[in-house]
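Two records follow; treat each independently.
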Amino acid sequence: LPDSILGGLEWLIAESAFHLKELPPLHFTKLHLAKLTYPSHCCAFQNIRRNRSRGHPLCFHPEAREQRHFYRDHCSNSTSITCSPTPDDFNPCEDIMSPVPLRVLIWVISVLALMGNTAVLLVLLGSKSKLTVPRFLMCHLAFADLCMGIYLVVIATVDTLTRGQYYNHAIDWQTGLGCSAAGFFTVFASELSVFTLTAITLERWRTIKHALRLDRKLRLRHACIVMTAGWIFSTLAALLPTVGVSSYRKVSICLPMDVESLESQVYVVSLLLLNILAFFCVCGCYLSIYLTVHNPSSVPAHTDTLVAQRMAMLVFTDFICMAPISFFATSAALKLPLITVSDAKLLLVLFYPINSCSNPFLYAI
């Protein structure tokens, strides 16, 4: 239909029109009521201006404003359109990454994460020296951080492509394969990273605790078994939201924030509690390492101690980054949210992936 007809609509009713995922680029000059299918489309009708350069001659009459319908149709440059369904707290009327500094920062962090972790993998796997257990575990940590970098690049790219008109692309993005793939990458990367950091700590603790017992040291074949279990756990954790346990479709940044059902709530809370438990396990191991190193009766190898010190910096910086995420995510999972989704995006860029960017520079490189 021509724009001259649709542009003059006063009521637009398109309920249960599930294939209408993108609104046509029309100038609704007389629209007052819109009943649509998707909440995101109501964002298109916020702060619409009439752009009337010249109003009706009677607009200047002192009593014109008292005639509400007349003034609205012929005089007012702005309008208030009643639109339903209204956007909820999980999908506010904004782009994926709204503030400009946030857009710049997510590109910087994602590029550094991709370049740094790719360099670590190339160096560790391409080296002619023997592959030790710490280096083997570092390869897995670098791969997990590389997956996080891929997730950030995907989010940043979609934000760039949909800037200013995300409401028209929200349905296709959040319900499509792209968002599910991005969500899988970030959950897989996050859980594999936590699992690997815990494995690194336990390996250092075992090596130093039994410094004089060479038969008690972790062998490469044992590390392979441990990391196979880590890959299986991380893959299952990332796959569950794709089969109905929570969902990646809830928000534009494709994180499993859906806790409506009991199983979804149990899933999200369980992941967060496992991460918190891993943190306390790491703290306990490093406390034991500290006591062992300063015990006169125990003489761990200088190399083992040095590696443990470097690993401690790596692990604690990672868990410091994860602490605010775990805190706010746990409160949201228990349906007691302390911050909005817009604030969560700030945490997403400033804390959530910063360890993936910094790990190669803190330790490996």
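The next record belongs to a different protein.
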Amino acid sequence: QSSQSLWNRLSVLLNLLPSATDLQESGLVLCNEVKDILSGAELPDLKANLLLPEDVALRNLPPLKNAHKRFNFDQDRPIFSAVEEIFGGTIDLRSSGVLFSLLLVWCQPVCFLLTNVEVCFCDQAAEEARRNRLMRDMAQLRLQLEVSQLEGSLQQPKAQSAMSPYLVPDTQALCQHLAVVKQLATSGRFIIVIPRTVIDGLDFLKKENAGARDSIRYLETEFKKGNRYIRCQKDVGKSFERHKLKRQDLDAWNLYKILDSCKQLTVSQGSGEDDTTGMVTIITGFQLEDPSAFSAPMQSAIQAATNASVEIKNVLEFYKQWKEMG
């Protein structure tokens, strides 16, 4: 009962595989060993045994001990072509699917289509969709609670509640001022979010930049520890790639990508657009005193952040402001 999601996904895979009829009518030249098991592809227990490379690789795996009793591992295994191995694996999976459907039809809904017989109940899909919605709602509530805790219950001065609970450093901030980012991460006052694009930027610079290498080592260590105050944000949803801008102005392209991540972060809070002001701050290694010194695309990216209620601050200036607020 607790594995409904697994069975649902397995049934999708099994239904994507070609049937025994499809395999027999493929017109491909197959060895006798594969032909012998084709006729039993829709039976719950294959009479012929085809020793596949994955069987050999998993020979000593304890959970498969009984299943492997039917194989003679001591005899030489026939040399199969790649197509023949795929056929053998497909037949094995189809046969297992038939067995699963016969076993599960008595205890829970299944969706694997038998030859000439359809066993398909959709209550399970509806239940999984409901569970997924519930999980998303719970995630939103958890993030809202984190914001509340960070703003009010971590014994921080009231003045500091005006500072964003989420900080998103860019590649320059990490390469140039890793020590400052570390202090912000260990303060217990902020959650540091590292977008995928920032990690890609560090990876690009690591051969020539010692700061990038130090940052990568630090982030890997923190991610492995499961530090709740510093997290990697995977790309979620579809964002504008702006391939032309990537070639013309990489800094502006990176800022747009970071801004996409910030928008995803604020949307995940489940609150209205007006409530996201001050939620996220991008901390950068760039000096921001004179915006006119930046390229036109970079100025547009900075303005886009302002329009999205996302602040951009120099990491040292942000750190100084935080310290001054006590």
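Discussion point: The first strand starts at residue 113 and ends at 114. How would you locate this feature using only the token line?
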